[in-house]
Structure formats: structure tokens, C-alpha cells
Specification:
mainly alpha; N-utilizing Substance Protein B Homolog, Chain A
Amino acid sequence: MSGRFGGRTLARAQALQLLFQADVNNRTVEEVLSRDYAISDGPLDPYGEQLALGVDSRRYAIDAVIRASSASWSLSRMPIVDRNILRLALYEMIEEDDITVAVAIDEAVELAKAFGTDESPRFINGVLGSVAADVNAGVDVYEKARQVLHSAAKARTDAPLDETGEEGETGEEDETLEAPYDEAAPAGGADGEVSTTEDAME
């Protein structure tokens, strides 16, 4: 990736790589930073480290926003790169006052073009675009996401039984709104084995 990015865009790319490694190995970003990790165009930019740690600290709240905004895609079934680009962009949109929503979305789309699949840029833009108006209007998007997910969970609970006496298929697995990191299911990779290659993101 040498020379592909610079400045804060490079920092975001490095943050994405840290988030990817944490996700693949079911670790926190702090744990990744305390072990061997790999980033492109080092050394690690301070803003990149700040972003990765910030995203990790708000991961479950951010994930609720993603789930509430992408009803047709469960979080666990999204490509690992895509969901971490979304986490990174939403953190900047919601938590970073000096970053405009438009800039956060544009940067996320560029990361999706560099690291994701052919479908990633459109998917990323669509999910972030569905949240953008609320962020710009000052809506508490975390609370709104919680309400949406609680309503969806209640609707599933109240769903009529089918002919077998079972609830109808919803196409979504149940996911808690918040949970300790160490209770999260591994996102992939061998247990205890740190994935650090940039190739894994491409």
C-alpha cells in the first residue's frame, strides 16, 4: 500500500488494519498493540492509533447503529473489512467534532475501494448515508439504534408461530445490544493466532 495514502487518510488506513487484526483474532485493539502487529507505511500515526482505540471503546454502541441501519445484512455476515470501515467511519461521524460527516463518508468509500470488494464502496456509502441525516440533525443515533433494535426484537418475540409451532424465519440471528468484548464470538481466524498480513484485507 506504500504511497497510496497520506496524512489523515493514511492514519485511517492504519486504524483499519489494527481494527481488522483485532476483529480477526477476537482481541481488543490494546491487545493487538501490545503484541506483534502489522501496518502499512509505518510508523503508526498517532491519529490512527487514537481512532482504532476510540472505535474499540465504543464498538458495541457503534455496532448497534450498523445493525439498525443495515437490516438486510447481519453484522456477523458482513465482510470483516466492510464492518470495520463502517465502525471507523461512524466513530468519526459521531464522536469526532472536527471531522464533517461528508469527509468521514468520502474517506470510508476510499478505504472500501482500496481494501474491500467491488461491492464494498456502494454498500459502505449506503449504510453511512442512512445515518448521515440523523448525525447532521443532532439526533442521538446510539439511542435511536437501541430503540430500533428493541422494536425489532419485540416484533420477533410477538411473531406468530408457523405450522410446525416454531417462529417464522427472520433471516437475522439474535445479537445482544451490548456485551463484554470477551463474550463476543470470534470473527474468524485461528484461536489465539494473530493475523497481521495486509494481504488478508484484500
